[in-house]
Amino acid sequence: DTEVTQTPKHLVMGMTNKKSLKCEQHMGHRAMYWYKQKAKKPPELMFVYSYEKLSINESVPSRFSPECPNSSLLNLHLHALQPEDSALYLCASSQSGGSNQPQHFGDGTRLSIL
Amino acid sequence: EDQVTQSPEALRLQEGESSSLNCSYTVSGLRGLFWYRQDPGKGPEFLFTLYSAGEEKEKERLKATLTKKESFLHITAPKPEDSATYLCAVRYGGGNKLVFGAGTILRVKS
């Protein structure tokens, strides 16, 4: 069982819908990450939060909006997505953004855009 | 350009047939090389971190080694449950990004 919990596990939405993905960790980690993973490809970094502040945005389209309400929670708000945004969205956390400690991943949300 | 390259892309082994997976990297200022295992429909599961050339880590049938240009994941006497995609990733320079290789798909048949 992973210590990073993501909900929902599956999400189907239309291109005009608004939805949110949620991620929670209770390991006391201070860095949290969103990744996008397409089939048979490695994870691609989208956003990094360090001490609840956005530190990296990998030029992600504005239809993806991250939020870090506190050190344990990370949200990804979705609006007006495109079919090519269908993918597995992974959340990860690590002790701190500057440390060399490993990132620990959740099992992801499988997102399908109709 | 590719900064992290994994080979082979896919590997089929018979149960008990030992082999190695390769991860080569061309970054400067390596701060850590990470091995993960990913099962279908799951997130990557952390296996090992290696920080400096000559370092080795072991866990059950897996052993990871690191040189200045590459890392190997040795699998000794694999079992079918070792079947998964194995990903390596590097952190380098002053940032906290992980750069992943494309992965090696391992299938172990009984």
Structure description:
- The complex is a heterodimer of chains A (114) and B (110).
- Helix content of chain A is 0%, strand content 56%.
- Chain A has 114 residues and is mainly beta.
- In chain A, the strands form two sheets. In chain A, strands 2, 4, 5, 6, 9, 10 and 11 form a seven-stranded mixed β-sheet that branches.
- In chain A, a hairpin with a 6-residue loop joins strand 4 (31-37) and strand 5.
- Chain A is globular and about 40 Å long.
- The N and C termini of chain B lie far apart (38 Å).
- In chain B, the strands form two sheets. In chain B, strands 2, 4, 5, 9, 10 and 11 form a six-stranded mixed β-sheet that branches. Chain B has a five-stranded antiparallel β-sheet with strand order 1-3-8-7-6, with no helix packed on it.
- Chain B has strands at residues 4-7, 10-14, 19-25, 30-38, 45-50, 56-59, 62-66, 70-75, 84-92, 99-100, 104-109.
- The mean pLDDT of chain B is 94.
Cα-atom radius of gyration of chain A:
13 Å
* Shape label of chain A: globular
Radius of gyration of chain B: 13 Å
What is the global morphology of chain B? globular
- Uncertain segments of chain A: none
- Strand proportion of chain B, as a percent range, falls in over 45%
* Biggest beta sheet attributes of chain B: 6 strands, mixed
Greatest chain-chain contact: A-B, 28 and 23 residues
| SS field, number of helical segments of chain A | 0
Record field, number of beta strands of chain A? 11
Strand content bin of chain A? over 45%
Number of helical segments with 4 or more residues of chain B: 0
